[in-house]
Write a structure and sequence with these properties.
Chain lengths: 242, 242
DNA sequence: ATCTCCTCCTTAGAGGCTCTAAAACTTCTA
DNA sequence: TAGAAGTTTTAGAGCCTCTAAGGAGGAGAT
């Protein structure tokens, strides 16, 4: 009873869903996160409040949907940057990917803050609902970064701390994650990868939250200095942006 | 007309103000940031909605007041940790201060997230209203960290990047800040200080926002590894926690 | 061609929120 | 003791989330 005769309806519905998410994003960027309300979004697309509940069953679900959109867009931007340099060295591709991430962040600070400078559903509840679109999009995003470090490791293992330098408890935590992910990186390499990720996350979040305004008017060179640092940690040659 | 005959009233008012801020904090920790509403806080202290406007002229002002409270409490905790080791080496005192910061963050994750994982009024508007209690408390907090690095620099200058390694634009931005602060650190040293601060901020915010749950169940050793790293950058001997 | 069903949309409304206005109650002072 | 000052209340406008009930229109079945 489904696929055959519901195509037209389904297309219309899809278009409306897209329009709603665009309106939500527009409100976010123009009037801030607090303005992304069911009522305001409904007004924006020309329907009256409760009608929107035919598309999203709650405000939280709308929020999750646009969050997933942002993750997917950022993922695509980073993958494009990576794939546009398919013939370049792995290290150069990683740098390009990281630069693409900041490029998106500064071009879309509200969206970046929306998805990253926010409390994440705790691991507990993520294990209960692993397959929401939001969580799938976030996982896919994570793999853009992690996947490149796996490639890098496969191509040219980077320096890692000696086994006795890594705290045994941390090693165990990382080993559990490595196992769940198929052991593409040993715990020591995962530790280096996480260190890199944490530094990029922190710097970008501070920037989009204006936490660095008090001292820096232009964070781009700070980001480049960080990338140079990370390149050093990963045994890569740092190449300045094109 | 003020001080002499208004003491009793003023005392009562002060007590009510304190009670309101405690209620707001209780709501934050027990029901999350969205539950800190004027109405809910008023109910909590046993008065009805609009009465609270005699103490705080808007929701934003209440938020700013408890934010200032949190900054002051964290500042005090860190200063205590520092001063409890007045006779120790500067490096050990700095490590103790940083550990006190994480101690407060994990003991009060909601409060830490409330003040740090939030958009800051942009520098523009901070320059227009520099003397709100919130901004003063935030500045005082910043000085706990920066002040110790100044002491450290005065006692034993740590290694800094060579002048030609530091991006000229960054150098200029830092020089402007150094001038405003009385030149207690040269731009190169400020750059190192900010690198340290950014790494601590990022790691602690990721932790309180559950952004590391997916891989780490215990972030303490990661924090210690970061401190060891920073100690290395600052030419300090790393000493494990007591 | 009509009938039924399903989808989409509407209005009405309960209950919460911020914040203003006006009135009432308390306390302090002259 | 009367008025001033400070505190608190109720009423209410206008926003919000979300539920309930019903209307208008196309899609398939008879």
């Amino acid at each position: 009873m489904a696929a055959q005769h519901s195509t037209r309806r389904a297309r219309l519905r899809e278009a409306t869903l897209a329009e709603i998410r665009e309106a939500a994003r527009r409100l976010l960027t123009t009037r801030g996160p607090a303005a992304v309300t069911i009522n305001a979004v409904a007004r924006e697309v020309g329907m009256s409040g409760p009608a929107l509940y035919h598309y999203f069953s709650s405000h939280d679900e709308l929020v999750a949907a646009v969050t997933a959109d942002f993750f997917r867009e950022l993922t695509a931007v980073m993958e494009n940057a990576r794939d546009a340099r398919a013939d370049a060295a792995t290290g150069e591709r990683l740098l390009a990917t990281c630069r693409a991430m900041r490029g998106w962040a500064v071009a879309h600070p509200a969206e970046f803050g929306w998805i990253f400078a926010a409390a994440v559903p705790s691991a507990q509840s993520a294990r209960l609902h692993p397959d929401t679109p939001r969580n799938r999009a976030a996982d896919d995003f994570g793999m853009v970064f992690l996947g490149q470090l796996e490639d890098l490791w496969a191509a040219a293992p980077f320096p890692v701390p000696a086994p006795d330098e890594l705290d045994p408890s941390v090693r165990a935590q990382l080993a559990a994650y490595a196992e769940a992910r198929g052991h593409r990186l040993p715990p020591e390499a995962l530790h280096v990868a996480m260190t890199c990720w944490i530094r990029l996350w922190g710097l970008l979040c501070m920037e989009v939250l204006n936490q660095l305004d008090f001292i820096y008017s232009d964070v781009a060179p700070i980001y480049e200095a960080t990338l140079r640092d990370l390149a050093g940690m990963l045994g890569l040659e740092y190449t300045p942006p094109a």
